[in-house]
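Human: Can I borrow your eye for a moment on a structure tokenisation matter? Separate attempts, laid side by side, tell us more than any discussion would. Could you pick a protein and write out its sequence and tokenised fold? No explanation is needed for now; the record alone will do.

Assistant:
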Amino acid sequence: MVTASVLPMAGKTALITGATSGIGLVTARELARRGARVIVVGRDTEKAARAQQAIQLAAGPEALVHVKCFDLSLLRNVYTLAREMQQEFSQLDILINNAGIMPGHLTITEEGHELCWATNHLAPYTLTNLLLPLLDAAGQARVVTVSSVAHWVGEIEPDREARNSPDKYSWLTAYADSKLANILFTKELAHRLDLTGITANCLHPGMVNTGLMRPDTSRVMRALWQVARPLMVSPDQGAATTLHLATAPELASVSGRYFAGGKPARCSGRATNPTEASRLWRISAEETGVE
């Protein structure tokens, strides 16, 4: 568990994706308890309403908790979310890209993207870029993206057709590639924001017992998950590093780093390759229309 001083959150606004359960819900709850206005983003309206109620109960009647219901695997929904944020808020102090899935069978979204790639990478890439004006307006802002140790076996496939091919698809490859993309995106974003007041960091939360898997996740993966369950940490423990990156005063000027267990951690060679990061940015810009 990370133990550190935290910035006062009163007057700050934080948006957390995938915040209706697991790590995201804990993160939203704890930020609200510390005084932040929180925007909870989730796909399911009933789960979002329950999350809002739970956060309000934990943080008190004065807590400001907003709900946005969007399926972020579809880029048009990401655009709509960003547009609503720009209309309703004058600044954004903390953006936490937490939403993610463990893929099952190959699924192509109606916009033509492999589901895991769309949810875990294209959505945070797009949302972050579209919200940069609000983040910049905050003066000092933080972008925190949840990655995974699985990135060590990841590799960026530049060709969408190959990524969408049933012959080449594997749930492990899809997940690991998207988590590698999270780190490369963070490093390139930090480079591009070097002269601003916005920092960008990412993290591995640990093996957390959450609802990450989809209903169509393979039986092999489900079996492995059950075997590993006794070794998993709780969502409260899993959210500790996210909260550390969002609130620790000593990280105010730290950017472009990968954390685990509340500390800077080593990541793969691919994840530290600036050429790979730049190439991923070009791929992402082409696939999302957001530069």
User: Anything to note?
Assistant: The mean pLDDT is 91. The first helix runs from residue 22 to 33. The beta strands are 13-17, 37-42, 65-69, 94-97, 141-146, 198-204, 258-260, 263-264.
